[in-house]
Amino acid sequence: MAECRDLLFPSPAAFQAMLEADARALGSLPRAQLRLLLPCLVRLALCAPADQSPAWAAQKKHILRLLSALEPVNAVVELLSIEFHVLEQDARKELALRRKAGSVTESVLVSQLQQGLALEFEHSEPPRRLRLVLSELLTLTAQLRDGGENNGFMRSSELFETEIYLQEVADVISILQAELPTLLQTAEVAEALLHIQHGTWFICLLVANSPDSFTQVCRGLIRGAEQQDEDGAGAQRRVEALRRLCLMRPSETLNVRSMAVEECRLPSLAVALTLDLGGEGLAKEVDTAGWTDVCTRGDLVAFVSGLLLGSSSRVRIWIGGFVRAGQQRHRGTRYTVLRRMRDRLLGELASILTSEHHSHDDAKEDAEILMVMEGITDETKKEGTTIGIKGSVLRDGNVVRASALLRLYCALMGIAGLRPTEEEAERLIELITSHPPATAAGVRFISLALAMLLAFSALVCMQQQEVATISWLNWMIKEEAYFESVSGVTASFGEMLLLVAMYFHSNQLHAIIDLVCSTLGMKIPIKSSSLSKMKIIFTQEIFTEQVVTAHAARVAVTPGLCATMPGFLPVHCIHQLLRSRAFTKHKVAIKDWIYQQIRESQLPLHPQLLTLLDAFITSVFTPASRTSPEQTNRPIAEDEILCLFQEESSVTAQLLILYYLLSYEEASLAHTRNLARRPQPYSPNLMDQIPVKHLVSQARRLQQQVAGLYPCLLRLVAASHPDLCLVEDWLQDEPGTGVTALLRCSLLPRGNARCSPQELERVFTSDLESPLPLLRLLSRLLLLPPAKLIPYAEEIAGGLGHLLAREAPQAAFHALARLWAALNSVMPRRLWVLTVNALQAPGGPTTRRCYTERDLMLDPLLVLRCDPRVYRSPPLMGIMLRVLAGALAASKAYLVAQLRATSDPEARSTPLGVAATEGPDVTRDELRSALLAAQDSAAVQILLEICLPDENESPQGIGHGGPSTLEAHVMPAGQLGELLTERREVQGLICSFLHQMFIADPNIAKLVLFQGYPSELLSLTVAGIPSMHICLDFLPELLIQPQLQKRVFGIQLATELCQHYPLPKALSVARLVLGVIGTLISVLPGTRRSELLVPTLPCLPGLCKAFPSLYDDALALLAQAVQVCGALQAACPNQAEPTTRPHPVASVNGHHRATDGENERGMDDLTDGSTQKVVGRAVTQLEGPLSDLLHNTFSQLVATAVIDSDTG
């Protein structure tokens, strides 16, 4: 401020000496500086110190000697000699009166003023001087509290404005604050002094005499300010005071600036302090303070860039408001802080450009020297591999500074809204079009310059600047290869330039905006209309679409491409050109480039590769125009694909080529109807030679490194190859834990689990009298990871046949089955073929065939044409069931793919000479569904036949004669052991497999139900297949079929289901069964009535046992049967054959069977003269072929109705 220019402020050396209480440093100060510090020095000398050490005593003596040479010491001593306690009491009384009355006419501290404050201060004694200054300070602080938001007022006070008394008043203020700290807080006093004339000087002296309060005072002054208040006089005084305080203690300048940023107040202070740190005068003073490292000219660029590009949006808004407000002021006023900042930045630009500016001859000479050093020939020089002569050349030391300046100006113009002047725009264009050296920093500078040119194309406003811009862009094109070879940077500016040109050609302006923002590292608003000038330059002056396409195909692939490579790579350019169909439009082959880039890819996977492959596949099937359907890219050849798997290629390349193949198959089926000329599909044997399941497992293991590749692979495999996504296989593929994993980790490094395939084959073919060598070898192989078992595939599959032929122990079968399951997790398809070929039915060499994967896909039932001994080996049967599940799933996928592939309307036309096989009401999809249903039902029927006993096996446990599941729980141990057989275990495996089939497709259960199967298996299927309850929904439809055999089968199945699932739905089915039997008894002729009654009458006791409420209906039905049979016997007496009644049987279905007398007594006990009694007598009088069956059925019904004494 102007009023403080002639006043002496404490120097940094004086403040540092006071802060450290260094007597020697104080002794080196001039007397004028010591006079400013006199209040604090006198208090140090007079007050009793807390430090009683001899060193401080010596320092105190030195201070006393310094004070003895100063004349004003006595006046200060007198000020310190009064009773401050009484003074504080009077001050508090006055404060209480002020709060009570609002204003005080008579002061407690000062009364009876005869003249003005200045004269009163001059004529008063020290106690009254203290009271006068204290009264003024209290009045000032009170006005400050009452001022509210108007903190910029100025307080006129004669006492603080008289220059001859300023030093004495400053002494009094310092003493009052030191002696009355609770009444006069330092920060509050400093805030009050800010509103008087010479307030900055008073604040500096107050802080110098109380050096520990520096931070408190600075923070208080900052918090008392507003966010954007540079225009007001109060804000200017505040900024001036804080700058003076920082000048007094330069080491805290950065901390004060950080306070302003933290509080988001006084942006002009933060910028002004940064400018002061770079000033020459301040730097000299700071050097004397021993603080030389902070004062650097580049701190302004770094500081303002940090504010605008930091993570705090609050700080960005704060500094942006400062820049916008600074541009709205009148040009005639004094230079503002913003103007000083812009001048400094313009000076930075001028210093870089001036130091790097060469004449034409100097630049040419430097270029020739550089070419000689780099070994560049004259021919290369003609191609433009030299440094541009027209533009300025940046030195290596200034490239980083220039890049920082470009980013700062981008932030100022894009975020803070700075409007550049003509001089600034000219300097910026000159810097943008300069030529940096071929280093990594130079590549970064060119990328930033290009992004800035696109973001702020309005900088190019003159014809000369446009010519310079075009020349600079042409220089970039020529220098791209040279920069990439010399700098060693993979992601050069050439890819970015090419990408921008492609975006302009495809009119993707928003993509250019995103590219510019990501390159600059900031989000700035860019209007699409502002890119029109640069679009004309790129598309008409420099890059045509054909030039861009031809140039992109010649760009070298990126070696070792991975996700850690930043910037814009060739893969980005190729992807954009594929999306715009530029390669197909201009007939430029790109297949080889993509294949080479796949080979060069590494982990972690670059995310752009997946989109690149998708765009390439689309270009294979989508022509550039409808008029030229032949303009498509060629797919990757099969030989090149197989080469990746035959050689030791990286897992990244194999995963990418697998993704390409699966996506190609999907796109081929999707574009079938839309293509006039379909590309040549890959041969079916190609996928057979690729370990799809192993690669999917690798992708799952490397999920963190392959980005989003694993979900895409899983979706494609599940859609096109569902046989590789069976639930049981996924559960088997879960990462192993426990003992096996522990042994695998502990034994494998020592080589204990290694053996050759020949050794395994030799053990299988050797004598198996002692299976220990085989079991030991299989246990060692089980410790290997599944991928390590691939070389043993043929031996493992062949070993199944060897063990079956030699009747090996079950332990060997189970160990080999576990080994087969582990190998199935990595190469299932090939293993399935090997297994089917190894377990074929025995026969001569002419009868045995060598099946292929295609054979299993066309006829999955080949799996079940195996050695019959497999049907009684649970481990081998489990293996064959898994192969059967995979073959059925592969067959379904194959038929679906064939249907989609041949769904072209032109392909449906029937050629001449071929009879049409499709009726008008039969569609191709219906035929496919019928074929699949027949295939599945045939597999189910074969599996059910396997459950039947052979000729040499006991039929126990099959059909009605065997024990039920509940009865098996109460059987003796000897009888229960008969059920624990291999056949029983195979039946369990088959029932579990059928359950999965029925759950997956309930229509299969319905089809098998309508086809029927041996009634001996009813109890087994109902008890062993949990999903058989769904047949309750199909039974009503089955019971109304015209074939009597289907109705009988439905009645028998309904009886088993009602006993196993006594549900409300089953009760309605049971009533329907009784109704159907009654109807059939009455309508069937006598010759066929026995075909109904013989198999169905034994079902009545089971229905009554499940639902006792049906007892009366069953008796009525039985009475009807007796009546019909009796009528038949009476009508045809000669046909009646006398039969002898059977002797009473001990039990029926585990229940006590009553004799005739017991039956009659039981019926008499129930209801005398009831229907039961009548039926019983009628049955006893009936004779004929059905009399025994009716008698046994009636006995069983009575047994179910009688309550046993044991259970009652």
TrEMBL record:
It is found in: Nucleus. It comes from the Eukaryota. Keywords: Nucleus. One of its GO terms (biological process) is snRNA 3'-end processing. Residues 1153-1164 have a biased composition (Basic and acidic residues). Its main location: nucleus. Residues 1136-1168 are annotated as: Disordered. InterPro entries: Int2_metazoa, INTS2. One of its GO terms (cellular component) is integrator complex. Belongs to the Integrator subunit 2 family. This is Integrator complex subunit 2. It comes from Eptatretus burgeri.
